[in-house]
Amino acid sequence: MIRINLLATAKPKKAKKTRLFTMPQLTTDGPSPVIAGLAIVVVAGAGLYLYYLKLQSTHEKLQVALSEATKSIASMNKVKQAYLERQKEFDAFKRRFDIIDQLRASQASPVPLLASVSDTVDKTDGVWLLSMKDDGASVSLDGVALGPNAVARLMTNLRTSGYFKNVQLHETVQEGTQKMQTFSFSLLCEKTKA
Fold first, then answer.
1. 40 and 34 Cβ atoms separated by less than 8 Å
2. Among 137, 126, 135, which Cα is nearest to 183's?
């Protein structure tokens, strides 16, 4: 049997279930989103590849510069080593020359000292030297004089000789008999620095 509804209202249909998320409908208007997405991925991949090539080129240039710098450092180390060796040789020669100069100075030192003391004693009457000891910075003189004035004149003459800066009377002792009196003396003379 066939039923025909003559009433103008339609029978309500069962309600469709609504989804929370609906898939977008692909339209055929314009470019396809899939193709557009693929195009974007291809362009991004090409850009990343070009960036990679640029980084690779920069890396190779830096490696070449690093190897050149390493070679330069190695050659500079050789130059530095040669310089240090020459410096050691120079220092050794300088020490040798200083020792030679010091030996020459100490070798010539007794001659002016003896000449100065000899001239000073010759200028002073009534004084005889018994011993002389050179201690480097000072000289000790032991002798005999006819009187205390002769010892004082010797001390003054030693000071004015220019070879001694300080002359000190260390000891004086009166000796002898009533006819002939002598004075034994000991002087300490500090040398001037030449």
1. no
2. 126
